[in-house]
Write a structure and sequence with these properties.
Elements lengths: L2 H18 L13 E4 L9 H10 L4 E4 L4 H7 L6 E5 L4 H5 L4 H11 L9 E8 L11 H18 L6 E7 L3 E3 L7 E2 L1 H18 L2 E5 L2 H7 L6 H4 L9 E2 L6 E2 L2 H15 L6 E7 L14 H16 L3 E2 L2 E2 L5 E4 L58 E4 L9 H12 L21 H16 L12 E4 L16
């Protein structure tokens, strides 16, 4: 047998062991798809009304990003399972060995008053903690100790049925393709993830992953079929893992099995898997391909129908996997690219962005027809600029715009030389004109390093060239 054949056989045996070990993974207590209930938005409905909307959508569970007392009170008596989140910045203090009283106080203040009236199933300690390398010396080593302390505090108060976990993004993996090669990043695998998996395994809790096929597809749209990402690919779009021979009919399963392989590689192939966030954006910036209502509705409706059949994944057939969609509302105050503000099932006025039955029982033909899919621009060939939002009309806050311009211009010497006196973009000599130039100069300079065209909502992307006369605005293609 060749070395490549030996490697393939080893990988197949490795994933077969994972598959055989997980038929018992029944997510007791969960219903249909859950929903993430974020509140970073203006004029949202009340908590009570929001719970009504969750139930109208057929949500089987809800996750909140804090321990919001109003939301927990609104959930009281409904029987809807809820997962509560501990803020990232609280993790180091909750991990301190000398602070058991502080841990008990957190539980007493945030959870105990609401149980059992609210059906709290999970306490999630932090949100994508291992994606923030700035906290590598603080939150990372504190994560598992904080989880252990909270579990002890819960048990001491008779709340031991609440599972303790944390959410991790797909970037916790250093390798995810092919799925059988899934492996955690070297900087976290031994120091953080192995103890985490040991804790989850010992307590019967879940590995919660934020899995977004949208981002994986958008970054590789020339090689990954959109239909494959939307759960509607034909056989020609399916992917066969060369290491295991397992066939993947959609990108979601492929991503989850990469996590399954990574856990097994560290010796914890039995840990249960849950999806803390997934979904598809309904809108985005000019350069964010595929973000539209048609694709979002297609993704979420197909996901709901699929998960209602309890298919598991190719590596874990039949395993019941709790899944939470992101999100209940469009959240207009979230920073970052345009997609960040367009994941909701509902607008803040409580009307549908698009209808979906999260229980997965509604026939596809019964939904109102969707608008045709917008024509897809060539993401790699369409120039994009960053300008002052709305053209700088009277509604613009001049003080805020001036401060944003000052920030953009001082990030690197010469960034705004063209709008200084005598510069080729000094005219028209208005704050609005100068803001568009400054925002664009900053974004083009720093976008590949994570700089955004946002400026607290003052900026927006455009495919209309704002250059004029001898004033040249650099584009995303320059």
């Amino acid at each position: 047998m060749s070395s490549s054949s030996l490697a393939a056989a080893a990988a197949a045996a490795f994933l077969l062991a994972v598959a055989m070990s997980c038929h018992c993974h029944v997510a007791r207590g969960w219903g249909g798809l859950g929903v993430n209930y974020g509140t970073v938005a203006d004029d949202l409905p009340t908590a009570a009304r929001s719970v009504e909307l969750l139930r109208a959508a057929g949500a089987g569970a809800v996750r909140i990003y804090d321990a919001n007392a109003d939301i927990l009170r609104a959930l009281a008596g409904t029987g809807v399972p809820v997962s509560v989140t501990v803020p990232n910045d609280a993790i180091p203090s909750l991990a301190a060995a000398a602070s058991p009283a502080a841990v008990d106080e957190w539980v007493a203040r945030n959870l105990a008053p609401h149980i059992p009236a609210a059906r709290v199933l999970c306490l999630l300690v932090g949100n994508e903690v291992l994606s923030d390398r700035a906290t590598a010396g603080t939150a990372w080593p504190s994560l598992v100790p904080a989880m252990a302390n909270l579990r002890r505090a819960l048990s001491a108060r008779g709340l031991g049925r609440v599972k303790v976990g944390t959410t991790l993004a797909m970037d916790a993996l250093g390798t995810s393709y092919p799925p059988s090669a899934g492996a955690f990043r070297d900087d976290i695998a031994g120091a953080v993830v192995r103890p985490l998996l040991e804790f989850l395994n010992a307590t019967g809790s879940y590995y919660f992953v934020d899995a977004y096929p949208y981002f994986a597809w958008a970054a590789n749209h020339r090689s990954i079929s959109l239909d494959y990402a939307l759960f509607q690919g034909e056989a020609s779009t399916h992917y066969v893992d060369p290491g295991t021979g397992l066939t993947y009919t959609n990108l979601f399963d492929q991503m989850l099995d990469a996590v399954v392989a990574a856990m097994a590689r560290l010796g914890y192939g039995n840990v249960k898997l849950a999806v803390s966030e997934t979904g598809w954006p309904t809108a985005g910036d000019a350069d964010e391909l595929g973000a539209n209502v048609h694709n979002a509705a297609t993704y979420n409706r197909n996901l709901a129908a699929r998960m209602a059949k309890n298919p598991g994944t190719p590596a874990r057939p039949g395993a019941e996997i709790p899944v939470f969609l992101f999100s209940l509302y469009n959240e207009n105050r979230k920073p970052g690219p345009g997609t960040e503000r367009h994941w909701g099932l509902y607008y803040p006025n409580a009307t549908w962005v698009y209808e979906v039955d999260l229980a997965g029982r509604r026939p596809a033909a019964s939904y109102p027809p969707l608008a045709p899919t917008p024509p897809a621009p060539d993401q790699d060939g369409t120039p994009v600029w960053c300008v002052l939002a709305g053209g700088g009309g009277e509604a613009a806050n001049e003080t805020a715009v001036a401060a944003a311009v000052e920030y953009a211009c001082r990030q690197r010497s010469g960034t705004c030389a063209a709008i200084e006196a005598g510069g080729e973009c000094n005219q028209p000599d208005t704050l609005a004109a100068h803001a568009s130039y400054a925002f664009n100069a900053y974004w083009q300079l720093f976008r590949k390093a994570g700089g955004t065209c946002y400026f607290n909502g003052l900026a927006e992307k455009t495919t209309i060239d704002p250059s004029h006369g001898s004033c040249k605005f650099i584009s995303s293609l320059d």
